[in-house]
Amino acid sequence: MNRQRKPIAKPSAAPRAKANTKRGGELKILLRRVAIQKRVREVAREITRDFRGQRVHLIGVLKGACIFLSDLIREIDLDTSIDFMAVASYGKGKESSGQVRLNKDLDSNIAGLNVILVEDILDTGLTLSYLCRILRERKPKTLKIAALLDKPSRRIQDISADYVGFTIPNEFVVGYGLDYDERYRNLKDICVIDVPSA
Ligand code: IMP
Ligand code: MG
After folding, report:
1. pLDDT tens digit string along 157-185?
2. Active-site residue 79, yes or no?
3. CA torsion angle for 148, 185, 21, 166 (degrees, to 10)?
4. Where exactly are the structural domains of the chain?
5. CATH level 3 topology of 36-169
6. What is the Å distance from ligand 1's center to 54 Cα?
7. Is 166 left (phi over 0), alpha (psi -120 to 50) or beta?
8. CA distance 72 to 181
9. Secondary structure of residue 147 in the 3-state scheme
10. Which is the catalytic residue, given 120, 123, 150, 162?
């Protein structure tokens, strides 16, 4: 796992996004839709290779991971199943409350399954550390993490993802499922949003 070098995103070279000036914060494209699609296919190929001949059970962390999971699962050439969990760690705005609350648990048992926890972004690591802790107690056969984005500079918990789409700098990003105050999840590109700190 983690065999391929992760693409590193650089926002400075990114042109402005035209579409979004009406809605408040200024947006700059960090990752274009085509690059995201290509990388999601590569990550799916890695998963397909690592679990050849087996079933994988994808658990999406709502709401941010829903778009990544939808694209990822369609590129995985294995027997698959899906479940979702919902957590709240960020309140309104950009800063984490520092506490993770489980708002929705799984629908079914994961004992003996190859579980892949699918997350939009690994930031401080608080959310995924919490989720991995409670999922491990349920005795999956394997437990891996697939994170579309990784912001290692913000890490508080010692945790890393097994599959990473892109490593990004310490910028707040929106689009492709990621929100600022519940908005912008529908953007096809991933953009840096320029809003005042909370
Ligand atoms: P962590 O617990 O700090 O690792 O944060 C994970 C969660 O914080 C993610 O699932 C996102 O919902 C949210 N988050 C962290 N960074 C960003 C960002 O740059 N944009 C949007 N949401 C973010
Ligand atoms: Mg969020």
Report:
1. 999 999 999 999 999 999 999 999 999 99
2. no
3. 0
4. 36-169
5. Rossmann fold (3.40.50)
6. 31
7. beta
8. 25
9. strand
10. 123
Among all ligands shown, which has an atom nearest to the Cα of 159?
1
Spell out which residues line ligand 1, taking CB within 6 angstroms: 61, 64, 89-90, 96, 119-127, 172-174, 178-179
Give the model's pLDDT for residue 96: 65
Side-chain-facing half-sphere of 108: CA atoms under 13 Å: 10
156-180 burial code (b ≥16 CB/10 A, e <16): eeebebbbbbbbbbeebbbbbbbbb
Would you state the pLDDT for residue 21?
A: 46
Structure tokens, 18: 């035209």
Q: 3 C-alpha to center of ligand 2: Å?
A: 29
Residue among 30, 15, 47 nearest 117 (CA): 47
Using DSSP, state whether 45 is helix, strand or coil.
helix
